[in-house]
Amino acid sequence: MNYDGGFVKSYGCKLIQFSFPNSGAPKMFSRYALGGGIKLMVLGLAAIVVLVFQVNCFFFSQSASKWPTVTGTITSSGVETRRTRGRRGRPSTSKRAVVEYRYFAGGKQHTNDRVRVTDKSKGFRIAQWNSQAIVDEYPTGTKVTVAYDPDEPSNSVLETALPMSSYIWMLGSIVALAISCAFLFGAATPSNSL
Description:
alpha+beta; 2 domains; 5-stranded antiparallel beta sheet; 3-stranded antiparallel beta sheet; 8 strands; globular
């Protein structure tokens, strides 16, 4: 819908009006447009963060798949439950798999708890929806194949392949980034049709 060189777009139930200098239309920039733009920028930045993390995991997976391997032993395996306060003070519970293993590499004994290439080493884990399945796969006392970094033998991982969920996160973040860029940059250019 055009009027004097400006255009109107509807996002959901909110009407956003844009006008352009030299168009003769009143100059207005709806507070909804500003709020929507900020949300789109946050979405774009979050997509970039997720994409950078997943691409980093992809390259780590590629290098870890070339590392030498040794046989290790699972020393402990369990599900850790954390209770925290969520939004608005409501209690929140998250679970994570904690699997520790021991192996010999570089003439020394090492311990680690990094199972997948997407895990952060030494203790930090994102809450996992499938934590019990991971614990069931790696029960205490099980012999496992450990891939370790030959330059830093304490850096190791059990699963060198990137999980399918990482590819889904990469694809989702690319789509979210494309959508936010399309709306942010597309909303700043006039359109003759809606």
